[in-house]
Amino acid sequence: MEVICKAKAFQRTCEEARQKGKSVGFVPTMGALHAGHLALIDALRACGCTGIAVSIFVNPLQFGPGEDLDRYPRTLDADLEACKSRGVDWVFVPSVEEMYPAGFSTKVRVEGLSEGLEGRFRPGHFEGVATVVAKLFALVGPCRAAFGRKDYQQLRLVERLVEDLAFPIEIVPVRTVREADGLAMSSRNRYLSPEERKRATGIVRGLRAAVEAFEKGERLAKSLEALARAPVEASFDAIDYVAVVDPKSLQPIDRIEEKALLAVAARIGQTRLIDNVVLGEERLL
Amino acid sequence: MEVICKAKAFQRTCEEARQKGKSVGFVPTMGALHAGHLALIDALRACGCTGIAVSIFVNPLQFGPGEDLDRYPRTLDADLEACKSRGVDWVFVPSVEEMYPAGFSTKVRVEGLSEGLEGRFRPGHFEGVATVVAKLFALVGPCRAAFGRKDYQQLRLVERLVEDLAFPIEIVPVRTVREADGLAMSSRNRYLSPEERKRATGIVRGLRAAVEAFEKGERLAKSLEALARAPVEASFDAIDYVAVVDPKSLQPIDRIEEKALLAVAARIGQTRLIDNVVLGEERLL
């Protein structure tokens, strides 16, 4: 496994791999790798990728003022170990200066999809995501890239970006990996105290309640949102949103015709967690 | 020569050419081709490109309300003839719907460089340019792309875009091609009546006056701007700007140390023309 810090060297390595006939798969991450990230690697392998590139970069552009950029977990040694054990070929670990040298001034924005849900509570977040993803895609030139469904809005935004700008890349969405009690895997779970960790299942309990009601025939967004909200309200300190939206446009809907995304964001102490389920498509264990 | 209307087919063709070992050069145009465009093709050939792709697309995103999108000259048959005679391999002629299908919502913006000069008079123009260029680059995947120095701000913006987003593309700047009397070649010159056409040399006469003064030692921006402005004022109906700026940042400067861009935009009737010279680098015939 090669660990590369320089953008040009990383680009050259990926280019050489492609020229040797490798089918390059790419997993962009902010490090602090957990089983959810490893599932992304496995998904690319299962799609037939014969070379896997992983980037580890805590992207300052996607953090707002007052967010957790400074305390975001950095666990490089363990991350590299995990990549190695999963058979990753190339790990790109650039500095902020390497990704955004002095004078950097290009921004990529996906209108519409960036504005609701996370976008309302994290202004500028998705412009940061779109910009770094566009740059990483240009560096790697992968044939496939994997993104977790836990960050569902990000996944939709990247799908849109790739379609709009004609990147010749297949986006592989990967199911959320959960702890035994249902909590969605997240690097931010490390922030939780043992007591907060117990309360944190409130979100998945809310999602489950809504899935059950949906399966029994409930189709009204307001009713499903209320069911999902109750356990979150009981266990979290604050709710940013509990919302039923169209799974493609992410626009609010009143009544579910076929499928809908139920997305939740809430805070325990300083920790902000998100999770979601696509009603009519997924079940939650 | 292949003429291709569909984005996916064009992307596939360029990809196949690359895989066959072609060194693909790319010239994005809005059609209405003239000797300036043909010089771009020749420049790529001179750089060693063995396959040349040209796009012809009047990009609505880069036209503001009240600008000349509707009357912009469309001369497809003559354009294809010109491409063929110059040995172009692939011409991409997409419809607006092919480039921007329903739901298209990604925008690319280059901050700083987009705001002065043209940006002040054409709000949104450079966002349209950056967006279409990013998409065309992703479609073609060229190793080189040629841009004319007549659209100097656009050239700088594309250079910045390519560097920031790490597109593995060499940007080849090409000297402005001029008519016998010095008028810079432009598709918009077709708008001029014979009488307006004569007056239109005011800009190049202004640039020449400034070059002469610069060569005699004048270094004050204000003085050089005044010299360039006089013949434009005498022959055009309105001046948007006559500005001496730093050739890299395009920020206004007071005194020229080594080089400076002198850029002019002015209107005759309904026709808006631009031109420029880099003082300390170019002479004008």
How many helices of chain A does DSSP assign? Answer: 10
Percentage of residues in strands of chain A: 15-25%
The termini of chain A sit apart by 35 Å
In CATH, the architecture of the largest domain in chain A is 3-Layer(aba) Sandwich
Number-wise, the strands of chain A total 10
Oligomer: homodimer
Query: What structural class is derived from the secondary structure elements of chain A?
Result: alpha/beta
Biggest interface pair, counts: A-B, 27 and 27 residues
Low-confidence stretches of chain A: none
The CATH homologous superfamily of the largest domain in chain A:
HUPs
What do the pLDDT scores of chain A average to? 97
Domain tally of chain A: 2
Q: What is the CATH class name of the largest domain in chain A?
A: Alpha Beta
Taking the sheet with the most strands of chain A, its summary is: 6 strands, parallel
The third-level CATH topology of the largest domain in chain A is Rossmann fold
**Helix percentage of chain A:** 25-40%
Radius of gyration of chain A: 19 Å
What is the string of helix and strand elements of chain A? EHEHEHEHEHHEHEHHHEEE
Task: Provide a descriptive summary of the structure in words.
With 285 residues, chain A is of the alpha/beta class. Chain A folds into 2 domains: 2-174, HUPs (Rossmann fold), CATH 3.40.50.620; 187-277, Pantoate-beta-alanine ligase, C-terminal domain (Pantoate--beta-alanine Ligase, Chain: A,domain 2, 2-Layer Sandwich). Helices cover 38% and strands 21% of the residues of chain A. The first copy, chain A, contains 10 helices and 10 strands. Chain A has helices at 7-19, 35-46, 76-85, 96-99, 118-121, 125-140, 152-164, 194-199, 202-215, 221-235; strands spanning 2-4, 24-29, 51-56, 90-92, 106-110, 144-148, 170-174, 238-245, 260-268, 271-279. The two termini of chain A are 35 Å apart. Chains A and B meet through helix 1, strand 5, helix 6 and helix 7 of A and helix 1, strand 5, helix 6 and helix 7 of B.
